[in-house]
Amino acid sequence: xxxxxxxxxxxxxxxxIVRACHELGVRSVAVYSDADAHAPHVREADLAVRVGPAPxxxxxxxxxxxxxxxxxxxxxxxxxxYGFLSEREPFARAVRDAGLVFIGPPAEAIAAMGSKxxxxxxAIGAGVPVVPGTTEPLRDVDDxxxxxxxxxxxxxxxxxxxxxGKGMRVVRGxxxxxxxxxxxxxxxxxAFGDDAVYIEQYIVGPRHVEIQVLGDTFGTIxxxxxxxxxxxxxxxxxxxxxxxxxxxxxxxRRMGETAVRAARAAGYVNAGxxxxxxxxxxxxxxxxxxxxxxxxxxxxxxVTGIDIVxxxxxxxxxxxxxxxxxxxxxxxxxxxxxxxxxxxxxxxLPSTGRISFLRLPGGPGVRxxxxxxxxxDVGLHYDPMLAQLxxxxxxxxxxxxRMHRALLxxxxxxxxxxxxxxxxxxxxEEFRRGAIEIQWLERRLASLTSVLPPADAARAATIAAAxxxxxxxxxxxxxxxxNGGAAGSTSAGDRxxxxxxxxxxxxxxx
Length: 510
Ligand code: MV4
What we know:
Layout: E1 4-7, H1 11-24, E2 27-33, H2 40-44, E3 47-52, H3 63-73, E4 77-79, H4 89-97, E5 101-102, H5 107-114, H6 116-125, H7 141-151, E6 155-159, E7 169-171, H8 177-192, E8 197-201, E9 207-215, E10 221-233, E11 236-242, H9 249-265, E12 270-278, E13 284-290, H10 297-304, H11 308-316, E14 333-340, E15 342-343, E16 349-350, E17 353-354, E18 357-359, E19 366-370, E20 377-378, E21 385-393, H12 396-409, E22 411-413, H13 419-427, H14 429-433, H15 440-449, H16 454-469, H17 482-486, H18 492-504
Helix pairs in contact: 4-5, 12-13
């Protein structure tokens, strides 16, 4: 095992890796920009090295600073976390060339999965199902419309160099083709410096289901099962769960085998994720492979009992995976909500400020993977993700109830957050039925983010003024409606409404 690991990241994922290091008895070295000098990940690590000013281009993205920090602290390995340098092939290579261990896949595997068309070719060669389409870039509009006729409209134009949805355009008929191709090319050129675009049949109403894989250096590659990631907005996942309501044990086995086959074809080692579209008929198509640890890894950890981050480190240190595929199956249900500093009632506008109050949820089955504390400044230099709130329970219904309860316990003041939005999703009838697909959230966004109805808002304002006049000294009493409201069994939704009404009536504090 390593003596010392450098963590080339910040925030909640840096802290997550620090925790894994401590449990493995490995010394941890944090890095920080000037904006993060007092951040929790810096304090919790055994050592910390400044890597530059606040902008990530001048700090967290500077490969040489990371190598220098590792050299100075005697670290033998570097964990990149997610984002930043995690999927940059040159960085993985530079770490190896410096005589250090990159805690992630080989640089060659990152490269093999980096180009979407190359990944598609690799998948096809390995017998992994992909969405019907081309692998070669389109030459021009005539080539494109001829190809589109073959697959039938609607088709989807995708950037060859891309990923994450940039440079994507749906084309519903030949009349739209030229304009869409132009737009896709322009976006691809801007985002990736490469305007190559190819074509796929457009899958309508699919779920986004991904498979976590873990491979060691001895050729064992295991599937740790699926995550359901359909609740997303503009390619940003908001809520993830494991397992998926749409995946039977049989489908899990087939998707798992497929993901392992794709990983093997790429020469994959360490933790990675194969993304699939799962259509309404249960057919699945490989989209791409994320060659890094992912934000949503905790839901898989909770249902499998396997600490993915610890195993990333152990695999990088040359240990052998001790699990057998047939011993891995999901136990219970896990749900993750990404708590972000965004204002859902204002188009998810990033919100900035200093955390002035923080009450964290706790109790049975609750996990908080956060990187903030009271006094933390939330600015615009980095991603708005503050924490992942993750719960585990025996069933999906119980997990939803637990998440709802945990979200109610969470109090975070100083910035706007996604908390209330998550509460509404947990209360939503369609979500509770599991009737979600990749367009679900965008379709339901208005109803999930609307502010109080005007009548309630006016009433709340009146009461707020009255409370102020009272010097905020309100006695804590049982609301008059309590008997009626509390009789019989109450759903979480009823209870919240009851509590809200009691607060609006000025009968209770909080
Ligand atoms: C698709 C698709 C429908 N049909 N490909 C979006 C991001 C990129 N990784 C692939 N994406 C999609 N590819 C075909 N042929 C729909 C999406 C898509 C999507 C996929 C996964 C998660 C969220 C998504 C949101 C919008 C579109």
